[in-house]
Specification:
This protein is of the alpha/beta class. 39% of the residues are buried. α3 packs across α7 and α10 crosses α14. The chain is globular and about 65 Å long.
């Protein structure tokens, strides 16, 4: 009983701290809240937050306030400047190493903020009224339905049915309540155009000058910049780190490219030293904060390439040409991007059939069993294969505004509701077809 009482008391303290923080946030931004009609609390991972914030502002404009909940390591404090004149406010959580504790606090904070805007008399008095709280799931579903009606000539009923099929396909693949709408929206052009306020422009000028100085010293040439995204973790959609890109980096040097690296940099510094990669840089070389460096590097790049990551929606937000390598699930697409999905194999590294990839494993992420009970998993590409796909991407798309590649229509059967069918300017790498003879030419 004593333990139970302590837990309740601790929970009460946490809730009171969240509420006091929220009152301070509202008080400091009182005019903004008084002008608003709706509120959206955004607490999911960084990649989700970029997509969902854009959808919210596209739907509600300057009458909406978005509160972004997260730690400084999991959020980008400069993002709010890119959304001007829309109102994005940060609700900072402490940096907690234990991921389970962090997500528990994130969820409690999200729920407490929504509850306060719905029920708190004090907040109603402060803002002289009540703001409607917009929930994540209906926001994304409504945006998807509107897009299907607007961009694919569906009726509202057809769009609703198709959107439900998106969710169903993802849920069957992973056995959870995944919302397919977020993935669909990554296949469409960003709904919001980014802003460049004076603060970002000033920092960007410094960034460009530094990049041009590096280029002159290395190549005595005009600036050619690209950005490499690294994601290495226990998560099944992560890449294998910078080792996968050593040959690709050498190739890009032969093309006079400056390469900026963003994302997981734990192995970067030692790797760069060992391999003498003088054309490869990170935020420290530019003497910039790592978060603003992400934004400026993507914004000024000819193209981006690399691993699946929460940074990818930021590339989507800037509408940059993009090559994403070692993608899982197999059927994942992004707007203006070339995808190289991982191939599913058994324990003997034998590839599953193309039909299996387009059915059971089209949206599967985690290692699983096939219909015969064999353990199967998505395999990674070698450094040589990565170099080949980067080389093909650069030679094909370097001088284009929009990428071209292997038509995604080849990657679904007769299912007219397959999400792949509803994609804009999204392609697979042609090397997937060349290197994988199991794909039928039909």
């Amino acid at each position: 009983m004593k333990t139970f009482g302590k837990k309740r008391f601790f929970s009460w303290i946490v809730n009171q701290c969240i509420f006091l923080y929220l009152v301070c946030l509202v008080t400091l931004n009182l005019l903004k809240f008084k002008k608003a009609n709706v509120i959206f609390v955004n607490s999911y991972a960084f990649g989700h937050s970029v997509i969902e914030t854009s959808v919210f502002f596209h739907e509600y404009g300057q009458k909406g306030v978005c509160i972004s909940v997260g730690s400084r390591s999991n959020r980008n404090k400069y993002l709010k400047f890119l959304y001007k004149p829309y109102i994005l406010l940060d609700f900072w959580l402490p940096n907690i190493k234990n991921i389970n504790i962090y997500h528990a606090l994130r969820k409690v904070t999200h729920d407490r903020i929504e509850s306060a805007f719905k029920n708190s008399k004090l907040l109603k008095i402060l803002i002289m009224g009540k703001l409607d709280v917009i929930s994540r799931e209906p926001l994304l579903k409504n945006a998807t339905i509107k897009s299907l009606v607007r961009d694919y000539s569906c009726t509202n009923d057809e769009a609703t049915r198709i959107q439900n099929e998106f969710d169903k396909a993802r849920q069957i693949a992973e056995g959870n309540n995944t919302i397919g709408s977020g993935h669909y929206l990554m296949q469409q052009k960003s709904l919001i155009a980014f802003a460049l306020p004076p603060k970002i422009i000033r920092i960007n000028s410094k960034f460009i000058n530094t990049a041009e100085d590096f280029t002159i010293k290395l190549y005595n040439n005009n600036l050619k910049l690209c950005t490499l995204v690294l994601r290495k973790s226990w998560k099944p959609w992560s890449g294998q780190g910078i080792d996968s890109y050593i040959q690709a980096l050498d190739y890009l040097k032969s093309r006079n490219y400056l390469v900026n690296v963003i994302g997981d940099l734990d192995d970067f510094y030692e790797f760069r030293k060992i391999h003498g990669l003088k054309h490869v840089f990170c935020f420290a070389d530019f003497k910039l904060n790592s978060k603003i460096f992400q934004i400026l590097s993507i914004m000024n790049s000819n193209f981006c390439f690399g691993d699946q990551s929460g940074i990818q929606p930021l590339i989507h937000f800037f509408d940059k040409k993009n090559l994403i390598i070692n993608v899982v699930p197999f059927g994942q697409l992004h707007y203006n991007s070339i995808m190289l999905p991982r191939i599913w194999v058994d324990k003997n590294c034998e590839k599953l059939s193309f039909e299996d990839h387009l059915n059971t494993f089209l949206y599967r992420i985690h290692p699983s069993l096939d219909i015969e009970g064999r353990s199967v998993f998505p395999s990674y590409y070698s450094s040589t294969e990565v170099m080949n796909v980067v080389k093909d991407f650069v030679e094909t798309n370097e001088d284009r505004d929009k990428v071209i590649g292997l038509n995604p229509n080849k990657f679904y059967f007769q299912d007219i509701n397959c999400m792949i069918r509803f994609s804009k300017n999204s392609y697979f790498s042609p090397l997937l077809e060349k290197d994988s003879g199991w794909i039928n030419n039909n």
